[in-house]
Write a sequence for this structure.
């Protein structure tokens, strides 16, 4: 793989559940636990486990608070986490681009400029 | 990893990012927030009718700022600033405040010949009503500033 030096495949983020979580967080400054849980259709415990992995890696940080009397928890990508996610996405893009370049191109048919062909088109 | 797997992962990333952007676009300001901003604006403008109250009018900006921050903190999705088109966002903010100022000035000018005792209070009522009525439109326009950052 060659190209963008920021591209870096990240095994920790690439796990499907964690990739989904990181991608949901990427456009946001903060996202609430319930939002991630509902979008990923995970159980509270499964999501907590994945989030704990990301928190322990220093990719995600937590804020606790309350909304309308109920306890709520928000998460966001840290600078380190955002950089890792963006590097991972670049690495994926790089893999796809490299594969496209390596794929055999379909043969290009030469343009037929013979008098017969021109005549056939103008007829 | 092969390119098909990478391509699927990229598709999933884009779809998830879009879910967050959609959620932010569908969010509505809570009624308590719109009501409080309208109420505080009314109080601020009503204070201008009283010589001793005018000095305190500026203080109303403090709870407006606090409430705005609190409302933003409680949202289930708070978008990263890079996802707003900042030029359009600031134009919208300036246009909204300018619109309210124009309304306030116009109502006061209309009340001037009538020699009303509390012109600023009445103009403040018009401003508060405009905030409540205009909030959904401003929020729709605000959502139109949501976009993608450039990777």
């Amino acid at each position: 793989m060659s190209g963008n030096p920021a591209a870096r495949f990240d095994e920790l983020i690439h796990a499907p559940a964690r990739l989904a979580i990181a991608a949901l967080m990427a456009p946001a400054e903060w996202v609430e636990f319930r939002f991630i849980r509902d979008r990923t259709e995970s159980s509270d415990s499964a999501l907590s486990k994945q989030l704990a992995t990301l928190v322990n890696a220093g990719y995600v940080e937590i804020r606790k608070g309350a909304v309308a009397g109920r306890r709520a928890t928000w998460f966001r990508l840290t600078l380190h986490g955002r950089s890792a996610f963006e590097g991972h996405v670049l690495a994926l893009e790089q893999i796809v681009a490299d594969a496209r370049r390596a794929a055999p191109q379909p043969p290009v048919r030469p343009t037929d400029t013979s008098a017969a062909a021109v005549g056939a088109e103008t007829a | 990893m092969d390119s098909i797997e990478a391509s699927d992962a990229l598709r999933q990333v884009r779809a998830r990012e879009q879910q967050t952007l959609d959620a932010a676009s569908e969010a509505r300001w809570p009624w308590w927030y719109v009501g409080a901003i309208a109420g505080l604006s009314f109080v601020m403008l009503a204070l201008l009718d009283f010589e001793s109250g005018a000095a305190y009018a500026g203080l109303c900006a403090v709870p407006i700022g606090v409430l705005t921050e609190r409302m933003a903190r409680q949202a289930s999705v708070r978008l990263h600033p890079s996802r707003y088109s900042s030029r359009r966002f600031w134009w919208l903010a300036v246009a909204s405040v300018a619109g309210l100022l124009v309304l306030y000035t116009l109502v006061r000018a209309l009340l001037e010949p009538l020699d009303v005792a509390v012109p600023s209070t009445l103009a403040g009522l018009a401003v508060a009503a405009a905030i409540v009525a205009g909030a959904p439109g401003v929020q729709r326009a605000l959502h139109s500033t949501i976009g993608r950052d450039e990777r």
